[in-house]
Structure formats: structure tokens, C-alpha cells
């Protein structure tokens, strides 16, 4: 411990406790100790000898070392003054009034004559000026970073709440489905709820850890901002602590990013739930070939509990704008995409008057609106007002029906052949076929601006209405 002290402090330190002498006494061998330290040493060893040189002492009375005591008291008083005023020289206890440009440190007048001869000096305010500007720049950047972290913290808080809401709603849906299957299906219900709980715990813990990390980073940045603001109020501290302050001001940590897949995988728990148990109870529950993904749906869309239909909602709830969500337009994708094979599903459009159905590439832009055209990654038909059309290019669309009364549309994707066919299943006739080379995974796509629902039909109802229709084909 004594080796960490300056030579002068070592001379004023007790060889036993290594602290500045307290009531020093001197022995006949000329060694000095704190009175209590010497007495304790003698009591422990039961011998009256010098702890340094081991010479036996015959002194019955311990003489105070007055000169040493006065020196220690004077030193401690000066040190207290220095500690209360860090702008005083640690060696000479004078005011630090100049800045040595060569050594880049604050000095007092005695330092100038002793250790800084022939060096150039300037005033503290002059030295502080350029450093202050750099620190202000660092502070501005730090405050901007703090705002970014706070923004992502708010988003993470919203995501955590939404996960909880999703878990509750999903659990309710699970229980409603299982209620239809009666008592002998309770075991399946419990297993599915357990899986939901496990995912909820996993994803909640992941977001919780993210929030805790953001809290720590925000606290660290806030601490640094407060520290820099404090330093910037004192020119001397700016100069004196510039290097450390600059290092503290450079918080080189990447900005947080939203993680894909953070929300509950609702489709996994509710999607095709009835079909999974249908394997045990045939002809009891419907199977939907397409399940809509609520984590992708625009917030203005309302999805049914079984995730098979969508309608435009006036409620427009505040949902997390996660990377997957189609926040730029009123669209939603199916929860499963296809990169091979032939796939077919039917959509009941009913009396809805403003809709789009078809397929979309996995990588379509989701944050800004644009036309559902092949050049943008879509193969779709749409109804607007009194016409159903196929979107071919930016400048071209083909009218398929006028004043339509069509109720159901079948979409058939043949991935390897590069074909997407739309059929009027009421008359079992084709409406339009896109020929396109697919290189990416394709997803069922739905868009709805109407309060009337677009509904994916269960597989066993594909041919139910084949002989009933009042519409006509143009």
C-alpha cells in the first residue's frame, strides 16, 4: 500500500498501518509510529521491541514526536484544502492558473519555474475554447443517440404490451376452439396452451432483456450527458479532464434495431387448429388452406378470430410497426409462403367493392403504398367500383368483368410453371392467368378497403356453391 504513496507521503506514514501518523511517538532507535499502532504491536507480540529494527525498548514512557505530528497535521490540512478545490496544484497547493501547451496540463506559478521552463503557456479560457466546441459536438451527438434509444425503448414497451395482449387473445381463441371439441379434446387444448405459454414466456423474456439493456444504455448515456454538461460549465475542468471527457463522450454502440419475429406466432397456435384435431375427428372441423398473419396485417384491418377473413375497421388500433407489418397499405399476407408445388384457395368476396386478391413475393415493400403489379412483386386481380381488372403493368390493366356479382374466386398458384390463375368458381370458368417466372417465395395476398369481409373458404366448401350464381362473365 505504501508504494502507491508519494515519497513525501511515505515519510509521513506509519510503518505499521501505512496511514498518515496519528499521535506519533518516537523510540530511542529514532523510529516513529502511531501511538495506538505501537501499543497494539507490543500487546500482540508481548515484547517491547521496535516493529522496524527489532531493537528492544526500555522506554517506560512513549515520547510524542511533536515535530512529526505538526508536519502531519499541516500536510492533512493542506490536503483537505486541495480535495475541496481540485483546481489547486497537488504539489504546491497553489491555484492552477496557466495551461502548458507542450505538456497539455494545468500548472501553478511554481510549476512553471520548476518543471516547465521554456514551455509556452496560455490562459485557461483560451485553452478551453476549442475543446469546449468539440465537447459540444460530442454532446449533441450523444443527445441524439439518447433520443434514438428512448424511441426504441418506447417501441419495445409497446411491443411487450402487444405480446401480452396477443397471448391473452390467442389463449381465448384456443379455448373457444377446444370448447367445440368437448371433453375428450381437453388434452389437446392443454398441450396447445402450454406451447403458447412457452412462446409467450420466451418472447416476453427476450423483449424484457432488450428493455433492460436499453434501460442500462439509456442510463449510461444520460450519465455521460449529465457529466459533460457539468464539465462544460467549468473551463478549467474542460481542460483538466478533456481526454477523459472526450472518451466518455464517444459512446460507440450501434443504434438498436427492431428484430423480426419478435411478436407472438399467432398463426402457429390458431392456424389450422381445427384441422390438426380433425385428424382425430374427421368431418367435424374445417381446414383453411390459407391462414392470415395478424403480425403482417395493416392496423386498419380487422381479422376474424380464426384468422380466415379480413374487413376494414374504423377502430384502427395502435399496433407495433414491426418490420413484417404492411403499414403502407391495407394488405395482409397468408402465414405460409410457397416456393414449389401447386397450391389453391378460394376467397369469398361477396358484396365487397374495393378489394385485391392474388399472390405477392416475400420481399415486397411493406412500408409504402404502390400498385399491385408484377413489376412490384404482385400477381393480382382487383375490384374497384363496378369493374374487376387484372393489373398487368403500370400503364396497362385488363378489365375482366363489369358490374360483377361474383361471390367466390379461386386462386391457383403453379410455382414451377410460373402461373397464377384466377377462376370464377360459381361458373367454374377462368378469369385471368398470369405467366411469370418465380424466383422467390410467394404468399397469398389480400387487400380490403370495405367493411364487408374477404373470407378464405374452408377446403371442404370449395365446390359447395358451384351451381349457384347470378353473375355473368364478360
Shape, per Cα inertia axes:
elongated
Number of helices: 10
Structural class: alpha+beta
What does the largest sheet look like? 7 strands, antiparallel
Strand order of the largest sheet: 7-8-19-10-15-16-17
Low-confidence segments, given as residue ranges, are: 461-474
What is the average of the pLDDT values?
86
Order of helices and strands: HEEHEHEEHEHHHHHHEEEEEEEEEEEEE
Q: How many strands in all?
A: 19
Strand content range: 15-25%
Helix content: 25-40%
Work out the radius of gyration.
40 Å
Q: Could you give the distance between the termini?
A: 98 Å
Structure description:
By secondary structure, the protein is α+β, with helices and mostly antiparallel strands. The chain is 36% helix and 19% strand. The strands form 4 sheets. A 7-stranded antiparallel beta sheet has the order 7-8-19-10-15-16-17, with no helix packed on it. It has a 6-stranded antiparallel beta sheet with strand order 9-18-11-12-13-14, with no helix packed on it. Helix 5 (124-180) runs antiparallel to helix 6 (186-232). It is elongated and about 120 Å long.
Amino acid at each position: 500500500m505504501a508504494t502507491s504513496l508519494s515519497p513525501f507521503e511515505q515519510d509521513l506514514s506509519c510503518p505499521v498501518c501505512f496511514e498518515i501518523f496519528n499521535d506519533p511517538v518516537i523510540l530511542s532507535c529514532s523510529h516513529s509510529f502511531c501511538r495506538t499502532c505501537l501499543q497494539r504491536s507490543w500487546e500482540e507480540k508481548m515484547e517491547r521491541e521496535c516493529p522496524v529494527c527489532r531493537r528492544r525498548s526500555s522506554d517506560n514512557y512513549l515520547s510524542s514526536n511533536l515535530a512529526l505530528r505538526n508536519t502531519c497535521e499541516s500536510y492533512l490540512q493542506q490536503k483537505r484544502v486541495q480535495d475541496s478545490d481540485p483546481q489547486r496544484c497537488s504539489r504546491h497547493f497553489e491555484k492552477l492558473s496557466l495551461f502548458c501547451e507542450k505538456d497539455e496540463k494545468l500548472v501553478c506559478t511554481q510549476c512553471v519555474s520548476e518543471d516547465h521552463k521554456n514551455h509556452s503557456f496560455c490562459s485557461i479560457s483560451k485553452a478551453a475554447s476549442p475543446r469546449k466546441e468539440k465537447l459540444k459536438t460530442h454532446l449533441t451527438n450523444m443527445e441524439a443517440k439518447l433520443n434514438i434509444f428512448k424511441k426504441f425503448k418506447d417501441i419495445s414497451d409497446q411491443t411487450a404490451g402487444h405480446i401480452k395482449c396477443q397471448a391473452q387473445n390467442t389463449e381465448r381463441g384456443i379455448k373457444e376452439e377446444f370448447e367445440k371439441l368437448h371433453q375428450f379434446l381437453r388434452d389437446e387444448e392443454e398441450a396447445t396452451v402450454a406451447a403458447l405459454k412457452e412462446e409467450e414466456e420466451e418472447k416476453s423474456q427476450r423483449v424484457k432483456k432488450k428493455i433492460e439493456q436499453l434501460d442500462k444504455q439509456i442510463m449510461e448515456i444520460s450519465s455521460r450527458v449529465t457529466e459533460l454538461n457539468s464539465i462544460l460549465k467549468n473551463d478549467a475542468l474542460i481542460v483538466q479532464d478533456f481526454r477523459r471527457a472526450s472518451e466518455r463522450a464517444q459512446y460507440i454502440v450501434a443504434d438498436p434495431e427492431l428484430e423480426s419475429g419478435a411478436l407472438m406466432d399467432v398463426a402457429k397456435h390458431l392456424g389450422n387448429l381445427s384441422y390438426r384435431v380433425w385428424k382425430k375427428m374427421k368431418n367435424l372441423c374445417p381446414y383453411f388452406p390459407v391462414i392470415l398473419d395478424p403480425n403482417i396485417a395493416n392496423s386498419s384491418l380487422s381479422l376474424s378470430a380464426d384468422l380466415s377473413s379480413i374487413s376494414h375497421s374504423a377502430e384502427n388500433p395502435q399496433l407495433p410497426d414491426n418490420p413484417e407489418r404492411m403499414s403502407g397499405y391495407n394488405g395482409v399476407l397468408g402465414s405460409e409462403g410457397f416456393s414449389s408445388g401447386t397450391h389453391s384457395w378460394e376467397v369469398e368476396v361477396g358484396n365487397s367493392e374495393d378489394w385485391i386478391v392474388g399472390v405477392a413475393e416475400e420481399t415486397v415493400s411493406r412500408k409504402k403504398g404502390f400498385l399491385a403489379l408484377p413489376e412490384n412483386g404482385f400477381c393480382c386481380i382487383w375490384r374497384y367500383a363496378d369493374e374487376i381488372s387484372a393489373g398487368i403493368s403500370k400503364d396497362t390493366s385488363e378489365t375482366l368483368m363489369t358490374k360483377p356479382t361474383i361471390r367466390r374466386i379461386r386462386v391457383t398458384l403453379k410455382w414451377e410453371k410460373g402461373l397464377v390463375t384466377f377462376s370464377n368458381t360459381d361458373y367454374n370458368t377462368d378469369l385471368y392467368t398470369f405467366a411469370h417466372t418465380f424466383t422467390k417465395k410467394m404468399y397469398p395476398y389480400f387487400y380490403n378497403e370495405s367493411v364487408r369481409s374477404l373470407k378464405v373458404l374452408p377446403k371442404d366448401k370449395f365446390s359447395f356453391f358451384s351451381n349457384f350464381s347470378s353473375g355473368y362473365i364478360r
